[in-house]
Design goal:
By secondary structure, this protein is an alpha/beta fold. 31% of the residues lie in helices and 17% in strands. Helix 3 links the parallel strand 6 and strand 7.
């Protein structure tokens, strides 16, 4: 019997897994006698695992894409081709498009499912060698508002807190995060601590009374879009009560006077009606914050997926700056990442405005450093921010995007305004789709399919929400002719004439080069390697050269010095703008979307696991009893939900867990898994002007009751 340690490839919690191979234990064998359990030595998850991690191995051999497939047009069937032909076609199309239309007509859309080695190699190919910044990833739909909020308020991306703070805080402030279902191991750690320390407070801000909110000391069921108002009202009371850290404000922050002037316009009496909560509830939230020596705020999509996502994140960080609740154990702002390696992707430069090492494409020095490191001529990297994923969609509509390369993600379920997305993808002259599974909803819109390895079949590293890097070794034979993503990118680069830039023969070599490029940056990983991670286990960054491996938790900004021009954090005096599409007489409800405990994203994996399918067999619409009564609809009846863009047909779940005037639909079901249930048929693409993150959490809809 042999075992090895790896990481769960689902959410950003980053739970350690131990996979065990026992040929004689056929009774528990799932795939080739391998089974999986929680890794008790992993410092992030401490042996805990949710149903997704516990069943992950069941998905390895189900519904896999086994060979490269090609078709000339979307109305033709696919035919198997060799890797030699597939790579030849990619190179020929890139050269043709670059010659006829320019390099900025080439785009790649990647994924937090990538290992860091995959991300890094893609950046080198697209941004370095080809010279276009048109690389984006589904972190754009998930974490980009957190990225921009951290950058503007604190000077750099990177959550300053860590999971150990869950067990040191006096008050946990969960905002727009149903962690009990979406990040269950994080929430379980906190709940275990809270059980031992009953004086620890839990505040949950969410329009739904989720499983997270059910155990809260205070649940603020706010009106969607009123987060900034709420944070400002709490700040108003903290200032009025004199509950400030004046020394911290004086020595470590900018813009305090402007912030205070703005906050005076948000007394709880005027804010409470906009938020849909009482003045007493706002006062209680402020009191919990004021009376706590250590406040930890945690958030996820409820803040990020908004047309003012950056403002929401900054307004929450303002409260930490106001009270000095940052740079100390048990306190700080802490975004909960959605994808398993979205953090690693950000470190590697995997968004349209980034370069490796938390560098920016608009910064001349950053570009020059990367060009020199990559052995490219000065000026090779474009100074212009590339296309976000939605810009890629509009580029297809306008004919400006001529080649789209999609890898390890399923945009034909996850993007907003799906009908418009479909029509745009249908116009793409050449779409490459690199994926482990087939079919997915996106398969129908591809010309070339490339089989990729997935978790268990590829070696590399991932970084979780607390900046902890874990080594993930391959232990299973790749399905069919599947290849590692980084291997595919590197081979295309070599065939395009960039042999010197892609000398790699292993993922370890890729990571060694990437780690060097982070030296001296906030996300310094230069002291890490596959060898160190395999020998000493998961490590948190910063981890510069010479660092001694340890499991001790690390926090950022302990010295209250921030990576801004003057070393101070920035208060953000911003007024809320409200929803991009508020409800009206024609569309009187606000639709919000979210995740369920068992499923993850678009079911590419979980839809193939019977146990999880049995847990969540069908999508549904949550509706408050008051609204159900007005509509004359009962539990289990079918309704048609319409927005200005599309419609869904769903069964009603009547519940007081949703606020009146708001409805909820889970986002997991695409056309492969249910009929007329794709919630992103309804959502709109309006996005935060700073982060580019769409407002997937709030769309105006109407409900039509279906009667036979």
């Amino acid at each position: 019997m042999k075992s090895l340690k790896t990481l769960c490839p689902y959410c950003g919690v980053g739970c350690g897994l131990e996979v065990v191979h026992n040929p004689s234990d056929t009774s528990e064998a799932i795939v080739d006698n391998w089974k999986v359990r929680g890794d008790r030595t992993h410092p992030s998850s401490q042996g805990m695992v949710c149903v997704k991690g516990a069943t992950i191995i069941e998905s390895i051999d189900r519904g896999r894409l086994l060979y490269p497939m090609f078709r000339e047009s979307l109305d033709q069937p696919f035919r198997p081709i060799s890797w030699e032909e597939a790579l030849g076609r990619i190179v020929a199309e890139i050269e043709r498009v670059r010659g006829d239309y320019g390099v900025d007509s080439i785009c790649m859309y990647g994924s937090g499912q990538f290992l860091t080695e995959d991300y890094y190699t893609a950046q080198k190919l697209i941004k370095g060698c080809l010279g276009t910044n048109n690389f984006d990833a589904n972190s754009r739909l998930c974490m980009s508002s957190a990225v921009s909020g951290y950058k503007l308020s604190l000077g750099s991306d990177g959550p300053p807190a860590c999971y150990e703070d869950l067990e040191l805080t006096d008050c946990a402030f969960f905002v727009g995060s149903n962690a009990a279902e979406c990040h269950p191991i994080v929430f379980n750690r906190f709940q275990k601590y809270r059980k031992r320390h009953p004086d620890v407070k839990l505040v949950v801000v969410d329009p739904r009374k989720t499983p997270t909110a059910e155990s809260a000391d205070l649940h603020l069921g706010i009106t969607p879009g009123s987060d900034v108002d709420l944070f400002h009202a709490i700040a108003y009371l903290l200032i009025q009560w004199g509950q400030l850290d004046r020394d911290f404000i004086k020595t470590a922050t900018n813009n305090f006077a402007e912030y205070v002037a703005l906050i005076q316009q948000y007394p709880p009496e005027s804010v409470a009606p906009r938020c849909g909560v009482s003045v007493a509830e706002i006062e209680q939230a402020a009191r919990y914050w004021a009376e706590s020596q250590r406040v930890l705020s945690l958030w996820s999509m409820g803040l990020n997926q908004s047309s003012e996502g950056t403002a929401k994140v900054q307004s929450l960080i303002n409260l930490h700056l106001l009270t000095g609740q940052i740079g100390k154990p048990g306190a700080g702002p802490f975004s909960l990442t959605g994808q398993p390696n979205a953090m690693g992707g950000r470190e590697a430069g995997g968004l349209a405005h980034l370069l490796p090492g938390y560098r920016s494409v608009t910064n001349a020095q950053d570009r020059a450093e990367v060009e020199q490191f990559w052995g490219l001529p000065p000026g090779q990297i474009s100074p212009h921010i590339g296309r976000t994923v939605w810009d890629m969609i509009t580029g297809l509509e306008e004919g400006h995007v001529q080649l789209l390369w999609i890898a390890a993600t399923n945009p034909l379920v996850s993007l907003p305004d799906l009908e418009r997305t479909r029509q745009a993808l249908a116009k793409s002259p050449f779409t490459i789709y690199q994926e482990a599974y087939s079919p997915t909803e996106t398969t129908d819109y591809a010309h070339l399919l490339l089989p990729a390895t997935q978790w268990s079949e590829k070696t590399g590293v991932m970084t979780n929400s607390e900046r902890r890097v874990t080594y993930c070794p391959a232990f299973h034979t790749p399905a069919g002719e599947a290849r590692e993503d980084w291997v595919i990118f590197a081979e295309v680069g070599r065939r395009l004439g960039y042999e010197a830039q892609f000398p790699f023969t292993s993922a370890a070599e890729v990571y060694a080069e990437f780690a060097q490029l982070t030296a001296g940056r906030v996300c310094d990983l230069s002291g890490l390697s596959h060898e160190i991670l395999a020998q000493f286990g998961p490590q948190q960054w910063p981890f510069p050269q010479g660092t001694t491996p340890t499991s001790t938790a690390k926090r950022l900004y302990l010295d209250h010095h921030f990576p801004t021009p003057n070393g101070r954090a920035n208060f953000a005096p911003v007024h809320p703008r409200g929803l991009a599409e508020p409800p009206d007489l024609d569309y009187p409800f606000v639709l919000t979307t979210g995740r369920l405990y068992g499923h993850w994203h678009t079911q590419t994996r979980t839809g193939r696991i019977p146990k999880i399918q049995q847990m969540h067999p069908e999508p549904f619409l949550e509706l408050h009893p008051r609204d159900a009564q007005k509509l004359g609809v009962s539990e289990g009846e079918w309704v048609r939900v319409e927005s200005r863009r599309g419609a869904c047909r769903l069964q009603v779940k009547v519940t007081k867990a949703i606020a009146p005037g708001t409805v909820f639909v889970p986002m997991h079901w695409g056309s492969l898994w249910a009929q007329d249930a794709e919630v992103n048929q309804l959502t709109h693409p309006a996005a935060c002007p700073i982060s580019g993150q769409p407002e997937l959490k709030a769309s105006a809809v109407k409900i039509i009751v279906e009667r036979n």
